[in-house]
Design goal:
This protein is α+β, with helices and mostly antiparallel strands. 23% of the residues lie in helices and 40% in strands. The protein has a six-stranded antiparallel β-sheet with strand order 3-2-1-4-5-6. A five-stranded mixed beta barrel has the order 7-14-15-17-19.
Length: 437
Amino acid sequence: MAIYTKEEARQIMEKALSFSKADTCEINMSGSDNGNIRYARNTVSTAGQNSNQTLVVQSSFGKKSGTATIDEFDDASLQKVVARAEELAQLSPENPEFMEPMGPQTYDESISFNESTAKISPEYRANVAGSSIDPAATQEVTAAGFFNDSSGFSAMLNSSGLFAYNKSTNMEFTVTMRSNDGTGSGWVSRDFNDVDKFDAAEASKIAIDKALMSREAKAIEPGKYTVILEPAASEDLLGNMFRSFDARRADEGRSFMSKDGGTKLGQKIVDERVNIWSDPLHKDVPTSTWNGEGQPLKKMGWIENGVVKNLAYSRYWAGQKGVEPVPYPSNFIMDGGTASLEDLIKDTKKGILVTRLWYIRSVDPQTLLYTGLTRDGTFYIENGKIKHPVKNFRFNESPIIMLNNLETLGTQVRMNGNLIPYMKVRDFTFTSLSDAV
């Protein structure tokens, strides 16, 4: 059994803690049930299900810590893993940034668990694959996809009296469709806590349509273009920006958020229509309401009307700076507008529709300049209509420049646990062509 109730998990961890002789002790316990199906060349290749459980003990003597892990929870095994962690702690050097375990905390009740997702069966996974393979095969398209579902729990207990517990579910789906003549490619991705929000046939149709539409792409000159970025494309760039919201890196002059020996906190950095926040209780992207240190996670604004409102302070760095800790968020939510993808296309005289980006690499961390390639469906728009597919581009762009060149915000879409809107952006920089499909 990999999924333990709150009471069962607490009982096991309290037993382990009773064996501790260290100055401080922290115990983390987790378990998950996972299922998956993978297919390629219009045929299922693998399918499986697995269960995992683990218990991690961190014992500390002063600032010296040791960690040991086990997946058996009988008394003898628990006693053994605690003793091993203490043995390793005694052998370890002191950690100058060691933080004492936190005391009891109050957490909001999480909404990240969904019963329908927890009950996904092998038959359901087979139907997901069939919803891609069957329509692809009838339209001279080859499907390759992966569906994964999981349900699990995590729990924490320490010698200072803190106890936290969370259950969650998740499902992820991605499929690439290639036209059988090898010239067209389409792609789509979906992820939800609640599988009832997922439609495999709808998602697969989008990828099939793009594969057929992107055949025999034409080359056009690289340069600066108005682009419509689907959420999968912009999320890749925005994700790199999100990681710069760390106060320590900013204070030490190592990130985009650094400025003249300080930070850009309180400074306007992007278009005033940009609002980015986090919320573990958002109904579309719910997460655990506590993090790996046991800190409560709450709704928090990061960019408001284009202005940096908060940076994340670890407990250690907050202590160094004499401020309250601000936990790094478990999701990011960017406000959108009401325009659909179709609306954005109709409102574009000349531009390029980008399905997604890949092979993204950093060019300049201080300006958040990145390079990479488009793929799986890139199209030229003229007079409000998709005119023809275009060959893929290499781009050089910064999410900061992108958000300052914002023309229109569209509706939000969940992508990798975040909510990202469709965006129309002017002067997006394409530097060269790529022959890859």
